Batch of 3 targets.
Target 1
Amino acid sequence: MLVTRTPEELVDMDRIRSAARGPHRGATWGPHARPIMSSAAQLIQLILIIRRTWCIARDVAEPQALQSNIDYACSKVECSIILPGGSCFCPNTLMNHASVAMNLYYKANKRNPSACNFNGTGTITFTDPSKHSTLCFQQ
């Protein structure tokens, strides 16, 4: 039986014990001594979780930092979708444009967490920003 865990539980290897004994040899065990999944299934689950991440600007980021993030990201990746007439131009806000540009850069860098730092003004979210805000995002 496959038990779904949060990303934190999958990554927090300190909470997972070895299953060297018992009827589920080769499986990993969760904190409540029940098998979670095999290492191959765990890897697939983790890949699916990583593919469902977005890089967005922190809401406390200063406007100058947001503009700097746009300038940097768009010097590295194609950002025409935030230009007038682009699919993510609206809402026409610095926060939206910076978040979209930062996410494009993050995706281009294979969703490496360090590609979402932007001097501390970026953050990774597991929740699709376009479903819970006015930000425009494409997976």
Target 2
Amino acid sequence: MKIISFEQESGVSMDSETTKFTAHRLLFDADDIRMSYMYLRIEDNIPFHEAQADQLFMIVSGEGWVCGEEENKIPLTAGKAAFWEKGALHAAGTDSQMTVLCVEGKHLNTENMPILKNAVTGY
């Protein structure tokens, strides 16, 4: 058995003029699926960019916001997720803190990712 750390301090910092967060790559290029565990602190954000693959952005703890092409910030808390299809412009961030499990891959759909059946209306 191995004990593995995925604490924020051991992650890779993504820090530029427009982007700021810390991430651990959990799975990379395994059958075209990538998974990351991300930490966003006060006022950290991921600016508008095009989804390179279908993407499920699951808030594990804390709270933050997500945007689609219409640029309306939609507040989300732990237990909620956003899904963007490949090519969709999107952004995310937080005014407090949040941790996120992000799953990206080709052709994510309700067949291979049943959680997508749990779409919530009213957002």
Target 3
Amino acid sequence: MQALRLARPRASLRPFARSIAASASGTHATASPASSASSSVIPLSNVEAQWEQLSHDEQLTVHQQLEELQKKDWKTLSIDEKKAAYYVAFGPHGPRAPVNPPGTTMKVLLGTLAGVAAAGAVFIAVRSFAPPPPKSISKEWEEASNERALEQKMNPISGISSEGYSGTGFVTHK
């Protein structure tokens, strides 16, 4: 019942302000908003299907009806009343309404695929207009760089000219 009270939308104060203003001006309202709302009974069977079509006042009336029903023993409630209470408290409406309408997943998937395809097309276009790689990026050039480093005794402590060196040196191609 606490969850139902928390989930219940608050009634606006305008109807009460109007009734107060009407009584202050000298005209008396025949019925208060609370008594007129409780006089119309909305059937609780299949509340899930009718909830979106109900006005805010009718939804408030359903909340009040369910609060009164839940004050009784839960064993005496019908299945429809229990379903209505659960739907009103925890149903997919208000803050728990789905954020994305159905079909959004397919749109996001197709949009992502289109973005990846466009990026691939741009990559291929840029690569087709690019100049050839420089001649220094070849296995032969790197092996020649290793020989030159050995001739010059480059990095004799831990590098290519050190004793027992077993690394590949400047060669990065396989």
